[in-house]
Amino acid sequence: MLLAGHSSDERGERRWHLAGAGLVGALGLYLSVVYAPSVFFCMIALTLVTMDVITTISQFWVLSPAILSGVAAAAGLALANSVGSISGVVSPWFIGII
Predict the structure, then answer these.
(1) What angle do CA 24, 30, 31 make, to 5 degrees?
(2) 62 pLDDT more than 90
(3) Which of 11, 37, 67, 95 is the one with CA 20 to 30 A from 89?
(4) What is the reported pTM?
(5) In the chain, where do the E strands start and end?
(6) Which domain does 80 fall in, by range?
(7) What is the DSSP string of 18-68?
(8) Would you place residue 86 in the very low, low, confident or very high pLDDT band (cuts 50, 70, 90)?
C-alpha cells in the first residue's frame, strides 16, 4: 500500500494504480482457488489478495478528490460512503434470502 501510494503521488496518476491493484487482487483470488489443495500456496495467494485489497481501498478514497473539486468532491465522497453503509445493511439480508 505504501509503495503504490508513493508511486501514485509521484506520478500524479491514480486510475491505473487502482486498476492494477484490483487486477492483482483478482489474480490472487483465482490462484487461491487453483491452489486450494495446498494450504501453503493458498495462504500465499490470500496474503496477496489482502495486500491488494488494502491498496485498492487507499487508492479508491484518494481518487474522488483527485477527479472532483469543491462541493462535487464532498458529494462524491458522501455518495461513496452512503453506498458502502447501505450495502452493509442490505448484504446480510440478501445472504439470508440466498
Answers:
(1) 90
(2) no
(3) 67
(4) 0.71
(5) none
(6) 68-98
(7) HHHHHHHHHHHHHHHHHTTT-HHHHHHHHHHHHHHHHHHHHHHHHHHHHH-
(8) very high
